[in-house]
Amino acid sequence: MQDPAFVKRAFSDIADSYVLTNHVLSFGTDILWRRKFVRGVKADEPIHVLDVATGSGDVAKEILRQCPDIDVVATDFCQPMLATARNSGLTNLVVADGMQLPFDNAAFDIVTVAFGLRNMACWKDALSEWRRVLKPGGKLHVLDFSQPTWQPFKQIYLFYLHKVLPKIAGLLTGHGSAYDYLSNSINQFPHGRAMCALISEAGFTDVNANPLSGGIAAIYVGLAD
């Protein structure tokens, strides 16, 4: 659970270089993660999709690339990030706090959240809000960072995350503190069974987790009954 004022300020500072920095820091793997994530969304054959905490709009754009005939609304509470999304071609954008969405109950077939749940002030309250705007039978799709379970790989990953990544990010963005925050937030964030339990507590059923890249990230899907 995070400080919303700090999160907004941090993402405002790095908005212009956010996309390139992510690609460099992940060695391009973030692109593959998003493509796989959206393939899961496409398989559900939605009509109305809400992408919460869209940031630069990468997931919303990928949804429209794979599913050009569906309606996608993308929201974020950080105006500079939405400006980046708009400059990349997205138009259906709404400035909104992911924990207080300006939409009716049961308005969407799918809610997607990529690397956004971790930044919410209260994870459980955010999940409950996303449950509210989903239709019965709709699905929540979450993509976020996790942690490897194989200890040798986990140690290498944590060294990169805490010692190498912030320095590279600082050079690329001039705001290394935003990526110090990233490293620390990943340590605090539930993953695996703990995340599945948290999503279930918010009212979702049939929750499952799909680890990516040895557990560096994971996709979680829950059903809104």
> Which outline best applies?
globular
Spans with pLDDT under 50 lasting ≥5 residues? none
Q: Assign the CATH architecture.
A: 3-Layer(aba) Sandwich
Please provide the count of β strands.
Answer: 7
State the end-to-end distance: 26 Å
CATH superfamily: Vaccinia Virus protein VP39
Commentary on this structure:
The chain has a 7-stranded mixed β-sheet with strand order 3-2-1-4-5-7-6, with helices on both faces. The longest helix is centred in the last third of the chain and has 23 residues, at 151-173. It has one domain (4-224): Rossmann fold, CATH 3.40.50. A hairpin with a 4-residue loop joins strand 6 (204-212) and strand 7 (217-224). It is built from 9 helices and 7 strands; from the N terminus they run H-H-H-E-H-E-H-E-E-H-E-H-H-H-E-E. Helix 3 (29-43) packs across helix 4 (58-66). By secondary structure, it is of the alpha/beta class.
Short description:
With 225 residues, this protein is α/β, with parallel strands linked by helices. 48% of the residues lie in helices and 22% in strands.
Fold blueprint:
Layout: H1 4-14, H2 18-25, H3 29-43, E1 48-52, H4 58-66, E2 71-76, H5 79-87, E3 93-95, E4 108-114, H6 123-133, E5 134-145, H7 151-173, H8 176-188, H9 193-201, E6 204-212, E7 217-224
Parallel strand pairs: 1-2, 1-4, 2-3, 4-5
Antiparallel strand pairs: 5-7, 6-7
Helix pairs in contact: 3-4, 7-8
